[in-house]
Automatic annotation (TrEMBL):
Species for this entry: Ceratotherium simum simum (Southern white rhinoceros)
Native organism taxonomy: Eukaryota, Metazoa, Chordata, Craniata, Vertebrata
Top-level division of the source organism's lineage: Eukaryota
Designated name of the protein: Double homeobox protein A
SMART domains listed in its UniProt record: HOX (SM00389)
Entry's transmembrane regions: none
The entry's keywords: DNA-binding, Homeobox, Nucleus, Repeat
Biased segments, Basic and acidic residues type: 74-103, 160-177
Residue ranges constituting the Homeobox domain according to the UniProt record: 13-73, 98-158
Entries under SUPFAM superfamilies matching the protein: Homeodomain-like (SSF46689)
Amino acid sequence: MAQDVSPNKTTATNRRRSRAKFTEDQLKILVNAFNQKPYPGYATKKRLASEINTEESRIQIWFQNRRARHRFQKRSEPEEDLKSSQDEDHPEEKIRSREDRRCRTSYTSSQLHTLIEAFMKNPYPGIDSREQLAKEIGVPESRVQIWFQNRRSRFHVQRKREPDEALEQRQDQGQDP
DNA sequence: ACCCTAACCTAATCAACGA
DNA sequence: TCGTTGATTAGGTTAGGGT
């Protein structure tokens, strides 16, 4: 698609975080945990993270990717396997036992100010920028990443809503759907 | 070249908190 | 109670590292 607000590549500040390589032991623990609970709560992710010595955000990403892969496979093989697997959700039971989320981060107005300013300069900060920002305002880098994701998403939505009007005080880098 | 998958993205939705 | 916004999800894309 021609939707390229994309990061300006080679700029050092837009680099991705380096790719993790899990050892077999680590993978074994992750896969095992996944088979028991594909939707772990925050406490579980935290525990796994310290167990295999990585960050909680890596665990989160790993589970997301793993679930996606599984769904894809299931689509290929719609039949088979019906009952042999363990557990299946009793909806009610599952909803009740919805695991804990990470508690909501609340930002001070000065932290928000810093974030917003950075967003206006570059809505797609790379790992280095995010880490620096995180250090500056004293929150984990993963929270900064989530903040940018939400901000971008809502920025896009807001834009669709108001095609015209309020076209006065906006400087954008020229992009139109 | 190709494959696998971590990293990253958007859009929708859940849910905490304050006015 | 309701709007704002942080957290989580589905589902898709980008890119690093191994073959």
